[in-house]
Specification:
Layout lengths: L1 H29 L2 E6 L1 E2 L3 E3 L5 E2 L1 H13 L3 E6 L1 H9 L5 E6 L2 H4 L2 E3 L4 E10 L15 E5 L3 H6 L6 E5 L2 H10 L4 E5 H10 L6 E18 L3 H16 L2 H10 L6 H88 L3 H29 L6 E5 H11 L1 H6 L3 E5 L4 E5 H18 L5 E9 L2 E8 L6 H4 L17 H11 L3 E7 L3 E9 L11
Helix pairs in contact: 2-8, 2-9, 10-11, 12-14, 14-16
Protein name: histidine kinase
EC number: 2.7.13.3
Catalytic activity: ATP + protein L-histidine = ADP + protein N-phospho-L-histidine
């Protein structure tokens, strides 16, 4: 029973408080809330040609009233009169005001409905004003009691001309009454676009003041302030605010000069980063090139040293080989000469002398001729050569040696032509066939065939001689390198050089106890400029 009494008392107390709070809201709802606004501050608030009060602020406050079920009365007036009306209690709120420290001491503000900025407007032909510092000593138009006055009053020696609204301030600029007009950026752009002044007026400098723009109530009117904040949060949550914002401001409203400035700034930043990147790449490439140049010079120097060493070694080998090749026939000749006084009467000695000494002299002559050909090569004079014809001439010269070893010569498909120096080509064939003859024991065989591959004539010379060890194949074209048991080894070196001089190519295959194959690739088309010697 006691508990029931306590519960009844609590219910009665709660009902009393609820009734009292509801009555307070009802009191607010019963009397229309008077809200003032500037009658010429587009696109925020303005009276149009049909005497309708329109703008962003008007739509916002009406949306809040609908959301809360409030009855409101909108009162447009000049900005100065509107501020005085709130101060005197003639209205309950101003639907849009820029927040400043000074105003915050007089009014309470809701959460912001938009962020505003103040900008400098000048005529297109004005070049002496580019930012706020250039306003020193100039006449500047502003709206009376606008936040702009608080901003620029700290700048000395500015002649401030106050106008009833921003339109009149802009007109003062156009008439030449003032040097510049400072006002709300979006309002200024609205006037410029509405009256087609884009070729007459421009914005200069950065925004000189960016502030929050809110609904203002008298200081201490917490009840109305709380109610308005509740309504603002509701329309921001349900999407109504966004629709109103897009209706009056669009996605992004700014003047053409600012567009170009933003584009220029973006391009400048991009150019700066690109330049830095290019410089880094350039510096890195230059450093890398220097390093490569240093390493290249080192490699060239090492190669030169190696080449010099190779040349010295080759020269040493060449000298030793020449000395050896000269000494052999000279030793034979000297031996016979020394024996002449003792054995001249010996008929067998005389016959041997007549046979050996001329042969040794011939060997010396061939050696000297080969050395001359190797050291001072003649420039080739290419002409059209039929393989069958030059091969016939070559084999005729070597007939005796071929007969001595009873070697069989087999030719096939030799009716092909190519271009080369005829004497040099004959020397090439002689050297190759002689090497085959020397490598063949008695009753051997040499096969010579021709073929055509693209623009080349292919001459294949194959023997069944003793062959060459694999380790010597890569050295056979060096001077005085030979697999012969007797004689000098400069023939293949000369052959290799002569083939190259005639724009040909030579390949060599060999296998011990099976034989050797030499393949020549000679051109069937004259190189440009070669036909002048044909």
């Amino acid at each position: 029973m006691y508990k029931k009494k306590i519960l009844i008392i609590l219910i009665i107390i709660s009902s009393i408080f609820t009734i009292g709070f509801t009555n307070d809201i009802q009191d607010i709802k019963m009397e229309p809330i008077k809200i003032g606004g500037d009658n010429n501050y587009p696109p925020y608030e303005f009276v149009d040609s049909n005497e309708n009060f329109r703008g962003f602020n008007v739509d916002i406050i009406r949306a809040v009233a609908i959301e809360l079920g409030l009855e409101i009365e909108l009162i447009p007036n000049s900005w100065e009169n509107t501020m005085d009306a709130l101060k005197n209690g003639e209205i309950n709120a101003i639907q849009g005001m820029t927040i400043t420290p000074e105003r915050s001491r007089i009014y309470d503000f809701t959460e912001e409905i938009v962020v505003n900025s103040q900008n400098i407007f000048v005529t297109k032909d004005t070049s002496y004003i580019t930012d706020i510092r250039d306003l020193y000593g100039k006449k500047v138009a502003i709206q009376a009691k606008d936040v702009t006055k608080e901003i620029i009053k700290s700048i000395p020696n500015i002649d401030i001309v106050e106008k009833v609204n921003q339109m009149e301030a802009l007109e003062a600029l156009l008439s030449g009454e003032v040097d510049a007009f400072i006002g709300n950026r979006l309002t200024g752009i609205f006037y410029v676009q509405t009256f087609d002044l884009t070729e007459t007026v421009k914005i200069v400098g950065e925004p000189i003041y960016t502030t929050k723009y809110s609904i203002a109530v008298k200081k201490g009117d917490d009840e109305l302030l709380s109610l308005l904040n509740t309504g603002l949060k509701a329309i921001k949550t349900n999407g109504t605010y966004d629709k109103i914002y897009l209706k009056w401001f669009g996605e992004d409203i700014f003047d053409i000069n600012q567009k170009w400035k933003n584009l220029f700034s973006t391009a400048l930043v991009a150019l700066l980063f690109s330049s830095m990147f290019i410089y880094i790449i350039y510096y890195w490439n230059r450093s890398l090139k220097k390093e490569v140049d240093i390493r290249t010079k080192e490699i060239i120097a090492l190669n030169n040293i190696a080449m010099q060493n190779d040349k010295m070694q080759s020269l040493g080998k060449l000298s030793a080989s020449i000395a050896h090749e000269l000494r052999n026939p000279l030793t034979s000749i000297k031996a016979f000469v020394d024996l002449i006084p003792l054995k001249y009467e010996d008929e067998r000695f005389r016959d041997e002398l007549i046979k050996v000494v001329p042969n040794e002299i011939k060997r010396l002559d061939e050696l000297v001729s080969s050395l001359l050909d190797y050291s001072k090569p003649k420039s080739p004079k290419p002409s059209k050569i039929i393989l069958k014809d030059i091969l016939s001439e070559t084999l005729t010269l070597l007939k005796q040696k071929i007969r001595e070893k009873n070697i069989e010569i087999i030719t096939k498909d030799t009716d092909i032509y190519f271009y080369a120096d005829a004497p040099q080509m004959k020397q090439i064939l002689i050297n190759i066939i002689l090497n085959s003859i020397d490598a063949i024991e008695d009753n051997g065989k040499i096969e010579i065939s021709g073929a055509v591959e693209n623009s080349k004539a292919v001459i294949d010379i194959k023997d069944n001689g003793v062959g060459v060890p694999k380790e010597m194949l890569n050295k056979l074209f060096d001077p005085f390198i030979t697999s012969k048991k007797t004689g000098y080894g400069i023939g293949l070196s000369v052959t290799h050089r002569l083939v190259n001089q005639n724009n040909g190519e030579i390949k060599l295959n060999s296998e011990l106890s099976k034989g050797t194959e030499v393949i020549l690739y000679m051109p069937r088309i004259l190189e440009i400029g070669d036909d002048k010697n044909v």
